[in-house]
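Problem 12. The chain below contains 265 residues. Write out its predicted structure in token notation.
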Amino acid sequence: MLVHSRTGKWATWSVFFVLFVPLFAVPLLVILAASFTTNWSGAFPSGPTTKHYVAATGGDSLQALTTSLITAVSASLLALTIGSWAALAAASMRRRGRRFLDALFMLPVAVPSVVVGLAVLVAFSKPPMLLNGTRWIVILAHTILVTAFAYSSVSAAIVRLDPMYEQAAASLGARPGYVLWRIKLPLLLPSLTAAAGLCFALSMGELSATMMLYPPDWTPLPVQIFAATDRGSLFTGAAVAVVLMGTTLLVLLGVSKIRTRASYR
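Solution.
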């Protein structure tokens, strides 16, 4: 709803800041402040330092960040491929088929992620698909968890597409594969990039299912943060969390620029 009066605008901004600052900004600022301190016994931190970032950007933490990036990129690409294919297939189905695919792809979201982790662990701990103890089981679990978001995003974008472009190309003799590759997918590119960014962000922060599956040589950064705070290294864990947030934000900004360029084409 648009607010035109000055009083209404001030009231809207006031409500926004009253809700936003305590719920979102303050917790993030607390983590940022904790990452630069050596002691926090009062209302404010004391003993400013940057030594926590030395541990957060090197050694095991750097390896964990690399692991998270590889896992998130792999899971996002797989989820985007599977989700987009399923969304395109669902668009050509009847209502009953679409409902079935909707329920199938949204099922991992409807249950706790730890249940998904347990299901993957049980399903892939015996031959012929023995993935337990490898990095692939973590990537698979992340893919399952984020595919629903890729599917729903692309499905919503397909509904908004103007069929006139496809009909015009088909009337000129274009084959279905050509229409898909040269017309439909370019029109869906902004939604595809948005879905990829969402899948990446969700994978970077996933913890519950990962805790059940990760092998010792494939430890993502959220697990590293949990381990640091669990053994009492709260300030180091805060620094690692800031690194995780910063890396995710940089990637999302890059994806946003790609999406903006795609929108103007």
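Discussion. The chain has eleven helices and two strands. Students who got a different answer should revisit the alignment rule from Section 12.3.
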